[in-house]
Amino acid sequence: MSHETWQEQLRRGSLDLAILLTVSSGPRYGLAIIQHLEAFTDLVVTEGTIYPILGRLTREGLLEATWVEGEAPHPRKYYRLTKAGAARLAHMTREWRAFTSKIDRLIDAARGHDHAAH
Amino acid sequence: MQLTETGESRVNGYLYVLERSLKTFLPRDVVRDAVREIESHLRERIAAADAAPGEREAIERILAELGPPLRVAQAYSAERTIDEAVATGRFVPVVRAIWHLAVSTVVGFFTAIGLLVGYLIGIASIAVAVIKPFFPENAGIQFVHGVPVGFAAQFPVPEGTDLRGGYWVIPIALGFGFGVLVLTQRCARRYLAWWRERRLS
User: What whole-number distance in Å separates Cα of residue B1 and Cα of residue B4?
Assistant: First the structure.
């Protein structure tokens, strides 16, 4: 697997979690979600591909979507976390933390081994 | 930034291509909602954009960040059609998802050919069973130079080809045809589920 492929898989694998985290603090519309992700991460490569993911998360019942008119010159589609979404987010966050701490331990162990070898 | 007529045409052109591409794979209400959402995104971006150095550059930059309409449509249809096919397992969504992957990936193209062969063999076997009562001499098990090659119906029967079997061929052809269809459908679902997992991982 090339480095780019690995990075792409890592990015894709964490996008669902990143989107759920973004809407966990309150409802946001598509562009606001993208801007939030762009401000904190480099996960958004093509803005247009975020919307299909929002659609899938909505179909899976993790997000709830509502069109709001009158707030801006153009209608905005707001996404909010459902109860199922909050439960999934809690689970994903635990999994993520456990996973990254294991990898961190591995990295530390490898570095310790390198230092000992030198 | 306020759009001129030219700028408006460029935005509408983008949305038109997006809508046309989405219509190939998705139901009308889903297409309408998706285009409305992308238009909302574009209008918002344009309203906040700086018109310097020029409107054209600003619009092209916004559209480039959003992604080419075909790519956006592909992402929408991949999410939607494959999810629906895996979740329901129904024939039409599965075929639609297979078609989608066939036109967008090389692996999907060759897999689709394999699955198409499976579906065709199943349908042809069932057709032989249906034709047999009406044209008993033209439908049956095909032997070419004495070697059985499968169920067939031919009009007229060519030289060197022999169609054998009485009416007992009907239940065998039906069983074989449905068996192949079910097996092909299972393979298609398994392939789509694998694709979905791969995409999510």
Answer: 9
